Amino acid sequence: MLGSLRVAVAGVTGGLGHAIVSALLDTPEVEVVLLTRSSSSTTDFSHFTSRGAILKSVDYSSIPNLTSALEAVDTVICTIFASQPTINLIRASQAAGVRRFAPSDFSFSATASARIDAHEPKRKVWAELKSDCKLEYTSFRNGIFMDYFVCGAPKPRHEGPFRMFPFVVDVAAGKAVIPGTGEEKVTFTRVRDVGRFVAAAVKFEGRWPEELGMEGETMSYNEVVRDVEDVIGRKIEVVYLGKEEIGKALEEAREARDEIGVLVNQTFELLADGVGSVEPVLNRLAPQVNVSSVKDLLAEYWST
């Protein structure tokens, strides 16, 4: 590859964008452009700019402004969830001559995500990409962020500004509420490893496929519980939710217009149906990326 590959990242203040930028800055022959909203210009990005990142303040409502910011950019990685700013970024990328674009998916497979109402903005973005778009594009998919198991850990501090909350297994409380039988397979990937896989993918010479899945580990929640108990040295309380119980909770959440409740219970439904795993294409294409297992992460944060 001649010269540096310029990669722009949209959405760099959150934990996922932070991990992707960190990994890109560790990648030889990659120049990183940070796209940040004008309103967030007071955020301190010196930990990135001191390593060579270029900071560009943009207006996501202005396609000409975005087009100018994307000059000489080869690849755009987006971690912004909102659909219209992302669609504007897609249109600006085409106008600027960008080659590759990755929207903010970073979740389950397309089939599983289609069952989640809250992912409608993602579906609008995909409709834009598929409608006479000249960009090469892919969807990075990683299952569930493994880092949720860190929530409440006494040590050490998590490596990035990732928003954590206990999901299914609450290690700090010593409890797990598991959808289904607990034997269904689920893919977990550490946020740091997601960044490393994305950094590896931007260096691929061939055309991106429409989906690039990755995994830290694919396992059942019963196996997760066993790993937790091995690391903390005690049993935790486990409750299983059947499909009928989940369906009733989902109906109640809809009636109450509880968007978070709908999201959680729709996710519980697909996990209980056994569609929470991701095909680890990137693990095969980028074997040099060393990933954390669930037990690795638990031992790092919870071992005494």
Automatic annotation (TrEMBL):
This is NmrA-like domain-containing protein. GO terms for molecular function: oxidoreductase activity. SUPFAM superfamilies: NAD(P)-binding Rossmann-fold domains. Signal peptide: none annotated. Belongs to the NmrA-type oxidoreductase family. Isoflavone reductase subfamily. It comes from Leucocoprinus leucothites. Keywords: NADP, Oxidoreductase. It comes from the Eukaryota. Transmembrane segments: none annotated. It holds the Pfam family NmrA. Residues 6-250 form the NmrA-like domain.
